[in-house]
Structures are given as structure tokens and as C-alpha cells.
């Protein structure tokens, strides 16, 4: 495999955004990764629009687009005034069938690996959060149990202090 085709994980993961409760990539970032112009990518998608239903690709609303550009301080959006196409994981997979080049195929393989890693990291953090919640519940229960033991000890000491001297049973001298 040509070393020019290998992209760093950081390069790819820095272009994954969380929009509309899903992990997505923007058309301009994908075009850069594929080594083509954004207009070429959009043109290929428009020619094959039936391959890209709403859950594969969508166009950002004007508000989402403005919000995104305000979040990216070092913006290189240039003259792009139209909201970008945004591709979900399935849409990116579909792009490899539309952009039929070796670089597109290799780039898609790397992107899918990154998406898989991100998904695994989310699962791992979810499992850790559940473990932490279980530990917190156990600690709360232990704290309650300790309080209960101390309250019983307090009751016992109070009873001893209030006790009258007992008359002894048995033989008297």
C-alpha cells in the first residue's frame, strides 16, 4: 500500500463532528481526505442522489451551518456560502461506490476503522460509567450501614447509663 494513502487517526478523528445526535463528517473534509475538490464530491453525490437517503446524508440548515462556522475559529471555508452536505457513517460507506478511485477506497477503510474505534470508546466509557454508578451505590449503602451501627451503639450506651443497679440473685452472706 502506498504510504501517501495512509492518513493519521488524528487527522480523520478531528473531522468527525456530532450533529443531530450522530457522528458525521462534512463534505469539504471528506473531499480533502479523498484528495478531490468539494464540488467534485458534491457533483458525484448529486448524480447518485438515490444512493444517499436522509439517514446517509443531509444538508445542514442555515442555523446549524452558522453554528458550525462559529465553532471553527480557524475557518477555511473560503467562498463556500452554501451549507455543506453532511455524511453519516453509512453515507461515507456509500461514497466509496460513487467515488471509484483507489485513494477513495483506502481512505474509506481508514475512516471506517476510526468510526469503529470511536464507537468502541463510547461503549467502554458507558461501561465505566455504569461501574462507577454501581460503586457509588455500594458506598452509599455502606455509609448507611455504618450510620445504623453507630445509632445502635448510641442506643446501647444510653441504656447502660439509664440502668438502675440490679439486685443480685443468689446466696447472701
Can you tell me about this structure?
With 173 residues, this protein is α+β, with helices and mostly antiparallel strands. It is built from six helices and four strands. Helix 2 packs across helix 3 and helix 5 runs antiparallel to helix 6. The termini are far apart.
Helix content: 55-70%
- Strand order, largest beta sheet: 1-2-4-3
Annotation, overall tally of beta strands: 4
Mean pLDDT: 80
- Main sheet makeup: 4 strands, antiparallel
Net shape: rod-shaped
List its traits.
alpha+beta, 173 residues, 6 helices
How does the SSE layout of this entry go?
Blueprint lengths: L8 H5 L2 E4 L2 E5 H8 L3 H10 L9 E3 L2 H10 L13 E3 L1 H10 L3 H61 L11
Antiparallel strand pairs: 1-2, 2-4, 3-4
Helix pairs in contact: 2-3, 5-6
Amino acid at each position: 500500500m502506498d504510504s501517501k494513502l495512509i492518513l493519521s487517526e488524528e487527522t480523520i478523528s478531528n473531522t468527525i463532528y456530532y450533529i443531530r445526535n450522530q457522528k458525521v463528517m462534512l463534505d469539504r473534509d471528506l473531499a480533502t481526505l479523498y484528495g478531490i475538490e468539494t464540488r467534485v464530491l458534491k457533483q458525484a453525490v448529486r448524480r447518485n442522489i438515490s444512493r444517499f437517503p436522509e439517514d446517509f446524508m443531509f444538508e445542514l440548515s442555515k442555523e446549524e451551518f452558522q453554528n458550525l462556522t462559529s465553532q471553527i475559529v480557524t475557518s477555511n471555508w473560503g467562498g463556500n456560502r452554501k451549507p455543506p452536505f453532511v455524511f453519516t457513517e453509512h453515507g461515507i460507506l456509500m461514497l466509496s461506490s460513487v467515488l471509484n478511485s483507489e485513494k477513495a477506497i483506502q481512505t474509506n477503510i481508514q475512516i471506517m476503522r476510526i468510526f469503529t474505534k470511536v464507537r468502541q470508546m463510547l461503549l467502554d466509557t458507558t461501561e465505566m460509567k455504569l461501574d462507577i454508578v454501581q460503586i457509588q451505590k455500594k458506598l452509599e449503602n455502606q455509609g448507611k450501614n455504618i450510620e445504623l451501627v453507630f445509632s445502635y451503639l448510641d442506643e446501647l450506651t444510653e441504656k447502660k447509663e439509664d440502668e438502675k443497679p440490679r439486685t443480685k440473685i443468689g446466696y447472701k452472706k
